[in-house]
Amino acid sequence: MNVVAFNGSPHKEGNTWHAIKLVTAELEKEGIETEIIQVGHKAIRGCTACGQCIKNKNEQCVLPGDDVNDWIQKMKQADGLILGTPVHYAAIGGTMKSFLDRAFYVTGVNGGLLRHKVGASVVAVRRSGGLPTFDQLNNFLNYAEMLVPTSNYWNVIHGRSPGEVLRDDEGTQIMRVLGKNMAWLMKLVEHGKGVVTPPEKEAKTYMSFIR
Question: What domains lie within the chain, and their CATH numbers?
């Protein structure tokens, strides 16, 4: 089994990276391979709502010049995902948001490529804004029908300078527990294949409240 983690920070080994590493360390103890991809330092355009991914259904976004399509394939092949971001104005960093908007839409319109994979969110923040950012990340996991492991508190860790989050004793425990629970859930999913029949995927129902 393998997990791919996306680091939405512009800093390669900042506090978001440290938070992700605390989680992946627990996964690796359980024999799960991990990879961290840095997103936050890239130039990534936001979704233009062109609708071509719906038309083409080739598991690709038509916007050129970045790594989003490569990352989509990594997401498809992975058994689990970790989404990590710093907090910018009580929200996901802009580059990370642009990537998630495009990637999750493409995976969704191509038959739900992430459905029933295991996905977790982690947030690194100096002081405030961690919970709304955590909620925003979870929106992507929930909409994709992913299975979300929990920890013993919300997955937010605090620190300012790179590595300072490691002094947040409660935050580091949260990440460790998350990693342990994620590994356990992934094993349940793996051992359930061919034994427990998953629910049939339903076609999405859309409704407009404007009449």
Answer: 2-192 (3.40.50.360)
